[in-house]
Amino acid sequence: MWAPEEEMVKEWESEQECMKQRLVLQDTEAWQKEPDFRGLERVGGVDLSFIKGDDHNACAQLVILNYPELQVVYDVSEMVFLTSPYVSGFLAFREVPPLLQLLHTLQREQPELMPQVMFVDGNGLFHYREFGLACHLGVLSDLPCVGVAKNLLQVQGVAKNDEHMSQISAMSKAGDTFPLVTDSGKILGQALRSSDRSTKPVYVSVGHRISLDTAVRLTHSCCRYRVPEPTRQADLRSREYLRRYFPSSS
């Protein structure tokens, strides 16, 4: 078990604050302003899957899908060794470096396939210090980025209480949403019923270079099931890679 040093956490906090100054929380691309996202052709998704019982070795996955068809046009799986410990609220320092490396390799080898927007299985602005995994990856890659989490992060007064459950029950169809409002009245994300098949919402927040409304609309348009297809495919393929090459890990 790693014991994170206070010094390292302070350093990470300071780095987060610096990167936060570079955050862009509005639409920056022409396709984002189109009702049907005309001009958007490639959406990316990333994920990490771990070998069972091993906190160090993981499969880093990048997929690129065409849009609006949502067919995989590029995918790469790479085993990575993670040296940074897991510290709650600082997951990005552990997971972003190998994911960023996959993007850099794609940019170098097949720049024509670079995604115009990235989906991350996790939070963006909806985070303890308003700088989650999707913000971190977005700022360092300088790509529009959306965080879509499967579970509610209970932060700044947002809680999985009776009111929250009642709001979920009131969502009757795919596309229904409600805001995630902090104690101070700030909206850090939206709960979205992404599919008629699933009554459980996903939690959408801005990562970088996209507005919340656009992020929610885009997420819904990329969902065949509960989870957006880019991150769903990244998860499926990284798990499949581990099953194939590390059968004892599944």
Automatic annotation (TrEMBL):
Pfam families: Endonuclease_5 (PF04493). Its cofactor is Mg(2+). Keywords: Cytoplasm, DNA-binding, Endonuclease, Hydrolase, Magnesium, Metal-binding, Nuclease, Nucleus, RNA-binding. It comes from the Eukaryota. The keyword DNA-binding applies. One of its GO terms (biological process) is DNA repair. It is found in: Cytoplasm, Stress granule; Nucleus, Nucleolus. Its main location: cytoplasm. GO terms for cellular component: cytoplasmic stress granule; nucleolus. Gene3D superfamilies: archaeoglobus fulgidus dsm 4304 superfamily (3.30.2170.10). GO terms for molecular function: DNA binding; metal ion binding; RNA endonuclease activity producing 5'-phosphomonoesters, hydrolytic mechanism; single-stranded RNA binding. The keyword Methyltransferase does not apply. Monomer. Interacts with PABPC1; the interaction is RNA-dependent and stimulates ENDOV activity. Endoribonuclease that specifically cleaves inosine-containing RNAs: cleaves RNA at the second phosphodiester bond 3' to inosine. Active against both single-stranded and double-stranded RNAs. Has strong preference for single-stranded RNAs (ssRNAs) toward double-stranded RNAs (dsRNAs). Cleaves mRNAs and tRNAs containing inosine. Also able to cleave structure-specific dsRNA substrates containing the specific sites 5'-IIUI-3' and 5'-UIUU-3'. Belongs to the endonuclease V family. This is Endonuclease V. The lineage of its organism: Eukaryota, Metazoa, Chordata, Craniata, Vertebrata.
